[in-house]
Amino acid sequence: MTSRMLIVLMFALLILVGCNNETEVESVDVDRLEKEQVKKVIELRGIGLEEIDLSSPLEEDVSVTPYSFQISETEDNLFIYVFDSVEERKEDISDSLGHGVEVNGRKYHPFTAKNVALIYEADDDTDGDQYILMTTKLDTIRRFMMDIG
Question: Domains of the chain by range and CATH?
Answer without folding.
Answer: 34-148 (3.40.1000.20)
